[in-house]
Every structure is written in C-alpha cells, then in structure tokens.
Amino acid sequence: MRRPLFAGNWKLNLLKAGAIDLVSALRKGLEGEKRAEVLVCPTFTAIGAVAEAVKGSEIAVGGQDLYWQDSGAFTGEVSGPMLADLGCRYVIVGHSERRQFFGDTDETVGKKLRAAQKSGLEPIVCVGERLDERERGVMREVVGRQVDGALGGLTKDELKRLTVAYEPVWAIGTGKVASPEQAQEVHAFIRERLRGLSDETTAREVRILYGGSVNPENVRGLMEKPDVNGALVGGASLKAETFLKIVRS
Ligand code: 13P
User: 167 catalytic, yes or no?
Assistant: First the structure.
C-alpha cells in the first residue's frame, strides 16, 4: 500500500526562528499520526535548524532543489550529499518555479533526480502544464514529455524510489485548484506513462502527489481519487493550523 505523503514546500519563506516555530507546532500537532507521512521542505538556510527540531519525530525534511555534481567550482549551488548530511530524506526537483525562473529543463531535472538518488535522497519530481498549454489542448503532450524526459531510462528499482508531483502551473498560488476529476485524469495518465517506462507493479507503487492551491477545504475531494496519493502544498503549509488540517483530512 502507498502511504499518503503530505509535503509542505515553504519556498522562499521563513527565517530560522519562524521555521523552528512552525515545525515545532507541526511536531506537537502530529504526535501519534501514523496514517500519513509528513514532509517539510524549508529554504536551504533553515534546513539544519528544522532537521534538529524534528529529531526523534516522524516528520521528514527535504530540500527544494539540488545541483547534480557532488562538489566543485559551482558557486551558489547545493549538492545531494550536502542535503543528506543535514538530515534530508527528500528533495524536490523540477518545480515549475525552477523551470520558469531558473532554467531547469527535462534534461537537468533528470540529472538532478539521478544525483538525488545517488545521495540516498528520494526525489519528488514535479510536472505540470501551463494554462495556455491546457487551453491549446496539449496538456497530455506536455506532461508526457516531462515524465518521459526526466524519468526515461530509469530502472524499475529507481522508479520505485521516487515520487511524482503533478502541479498544474495555472493552479499554483492562484487559489484555482484543479477539480478532483481533473487531477485524477492527469494522475491516471502519468501512471499509465510510468507503466510504459516499467511495468504494472512498478507503476502502481509510485506515489503521485497533487499540488496547486491545496487547502483544508479542497484536499478531501482530491484525496478520494484513486491515483492521488498525497499533496505538495505551498501557501497553506506556512501555517501550522492549516497544514495540520490538510494532513488530518
Ligand atoms: P500553492 O499551494 O501555494 O498553490 O503552491 C503549490 C506549490 O507550488 C507546491 O510546490
């Protein structure tokens, strides 16, 4: 059985003190929670402090990005071994904001996810179409290309050690969530694509998260869909109360 994963992507928010306050409140609120896995992805500068604050709890910590080289002359970058060294278990790769503002492509996303796995991290690979692509009717083409481009060539074992996040760009930070039916349609499509890259058993084991304007009111409907295995939450993960409500849903 796939255990649902609720991941908070804090993006470029929170100084160290605020990050510790937030994760401490989550820790308190999640005591005894066994049904769902909970992950927080702070900014690089807060990861160490947050990892320290969750020690001994079930809350996992992840990075928001990484570089594919372990070390070297790459000013400003952070590598997989560095994230693992701080206590990270996960790392987000290919978030649409990285693709839009920082030049990530399917090729570099593929390199990053392989580097993450090599460092013992579980990558959360983000895919999703923009509004104009949905309106032009090329959603499947776009998402299919992103999945194949980043995940093509991975072994079945490697595919089982990653999570996919479907984040339609038009739903991110807009308050315009995908309907449960829209999400299910794309999640089923992604799973079919994973089947094409491996086999039925492997495709069934991969968790596919939905992300984009998830909040306590809409999460239940999304989670009721068979191919929605959790959520990647931005804005609503910055307040303990709302994120806890989402997890408890
Ligand atoms: P919002 O939940 O703020 O729409 O952000 C979603 C997201 O980008 C998570 O990675």
Answer: yes
- Are the beta carbons of 227 and 165 closer than 8 angstroms? no
Say if CB 237 and CB 10 are below 8 A apart.
Answer: yes
Residue 187 annotated among the catalytic residues of the structure: no
Q: Is 34's pLDDT higher than 90?
A: no
Domain membership flag for residue 50 = yes
Other CB atoms within a 10 A radius of the CB of residue 206 amount to 21
Confidence of residue 1 (pLDDT cuts 50, 70, 90): low
Full domain range(s) for residue 29: 9-80+88-244
Q: Hey, which of 100, 169, 208, 214 would you mutate to test ligand 1's pocket, going by the most ligand atoms within 8 Å of its Cβ? A: 214
pTM of the model: 0.97
Domain for residue 137, yes or no? yes
pLDDT category, 32, cuts 50, 70, 90? confident
Q: What's the CA gap between 41 and 64, in Å, rounded?
A: 6
Active-site option among 122, 129, 133, 167:
167
What's the total number of domains in the chain? 1
The CATH number linked to 228 is 3.20.20.70
